[in-house]
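Same chain as my last thread, 317 residues:
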Amino acid sequence: MIRYLRGRIPAAILVLLGASLLVFSMLHFLPGDPVLIMMASGGGGIAGAQGTEISQEQYEAIRYQLGLDRPLYVQFGAFVWNALHGDLGRSFRSNQTVAELIANVLPNTFRLALLSLGISCLVGVTLGTLAAVRHNTWIDSATMAFALFGVAMPNFWFGLVLISVFALNLRWLPATGAGGWSAIILPALALGMRSAAVIARLTRASLLEVLSEGYLTTARAKGLPERIIVVRHSLRNALIPVVTIAGLQFGDLLAGAVVIEVVFARPGLGNLAVKAIENKDFPVVQGTVLVVATAYVVTNLLTDVVYALLDPRITYT
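reply #2:
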């Protein structure tokens, strides 16, 4: 396992470097000048200037102060070097460090993603198990219909439906904001249902395959109750591929939180990134992408470790 992780770490670093380079390039090719955008919105940023009318000398001085006058490869190299030392730069608009801005909202995004993952696993594994045990019954058909609907359903649309039903009509839960646990239930449901559908389909397929194994026929012949056979002997082996998709889904949930946080007006990495993109606040966008990419890579590594815990036959060389 240690040897395997040592081999994966360089590959993970290359993935993070590639993601940072891609976002860095896209941001700089988008139309609009970050200095003019900052001035038009009245932001002082690092330069500390106010207003929308500045002279050419002031404009050049602000670009120099922000480091935008340097070649792109120099800017990217400086970002990577500073990031390796824990410095993600400073926001062009607020002059706060990017690390501080991310640290203020990161717990909200992780809380949302983790709760969504929990809902996805609970709903998906439960429905997938019921569909496999009740194969070719109305329960199986209903579960597969749910899975098809969940995969095809846009998260933002489902979020708007939840707001309309449970917040505006029934008034059971708040529609927006980041209050207590009641404020996170609707966003977590909206974000997690698609993953729940994927997990349900995979659980059903995997469990159906395991239930046809010969050793389970022997267990039935010995008189073991079907509940014990399914829960103790079948589900453990069937969950190995489910762990794979659940680990990958966490990265998708972090990315999907960008849209859901905007729909539900929740403070988080999503809202922070969207506002930074609108203002061409390069350091903030690069920092948020780097954090999400790092979380995705680490999740994949942890998923591989869980493989070995679920099935000791799995070894890494």
